[in-house]
Amino acid sequence: MLRPADVLVVPGPPPRAALELRRDVFVIEQAVPPDLEDDGRDDDADHAIVVDDAGRALATARLLDPGYGSASPDDRRGADPHLGEGPAEPSGVIGRVAVRAELRGRGLGRAVTVALEHRASERGLPAVELHAQVAAEGFYAAGGYLPIGGRFMEAGIEHVAMRKELLPGLRWVRDADGPALERLVGTRIDVVIGLGFDCAIALDVSAFVALHDHKDADVMELMSLYVAAVARRDMRITGRSVWTKSAGRTGL
Q: Range of 214's domain?
């Protein structure tokens, strides 16, 4: 059983050993065209890797941020038509999960995936998504991923889009939340929204944070945070969880 410390997570570009393992698994073993495997996005990703004492990569995966769910459902489907009608919230995208053939079934794939889930949480992302090969759908389902679209072909291999919630219930405010937000905030929510805040809420409007986007300085300013009394003992919606989800979108 690997410990978290056994998995190295580094920003791109990925180590050469990780690229060599991906080539062996995807290009040589699975006959994925090299130009599809090397899509030019590695430099903008975080990479998880497990290496042996000789420096060989035993397993690797990558995390892209932001994911497909940054806008409306229509925009989201436009970015990736395989994602269906799922939630249109910001998400990390895990991919390029590769394990050396002779070591499969020993938990290495789960280790690098979990490491990137933790990295996504650190970035304030409430969920991660991935394109799972249908043969591996059960593997990801056991790790908490749920299908969010139909099956499709990618690089000649049947896939299914899947999503795992990291901060369940945490999402951007919606127009329909107005009455509940008024009860929580205790003021006219149209006045709050009218100040030009970007807002995030959690767990059926149990918490609310308002942020002002200083676009000229590329920072966000925390303006107000509300957590309902009945929810203050719920570790899922501490001020930190609501704040980091929002702050993660801009990199304060």
A: 171-247
What CATH number did the domain enclosing 98 receive?
Answer: 3.40.630.30
What are the start-end ranges of the E strands in the chain?
8-11, 46-51, 57-64, 92-99, 127-133, 146-154, 157-165, 171-172, 197-202, 207-214, 219-227
Task: Tell me whether residue 39 is in a domain.
Answer: yes
pLDDT in tens, 160-193: 999 998 876 666 677 777 787 777 777 666 655 5
Supply the pLDDT for residue 211.
Answer: 67
Domain count, the chain: 2
Low-confidence spans in the chain with pLDDT less than 70: 1-5, 66-90, 168-172, 187-204, 211-213, 215, 217-220, 222-223, 230-252
My answer on whether 218 and 103 are in the same domain is no
In a domain, 192, yes or no: yes
> Secondary structure of the chain: what % helix, strand, coil (to 5)?
35, 30, 35
**DSSP line for 50-110:** EE-TTS-EEEEEEEESS-S-SS-HHHHHHH-TTSTT---S--EEEEEEEE-GGGTTSSHHH
Q: Is residue 17 part of a domain?
A: yes
Same domain, 192 and 149: no
pTM of the predicted model, to two decimals?
0.69
- Is 65 part of a structural domain of the chain? yes
Strands 157-165 and 197-202: unpaired
Q: Write down the pLDDT at residue 2.
A: 57
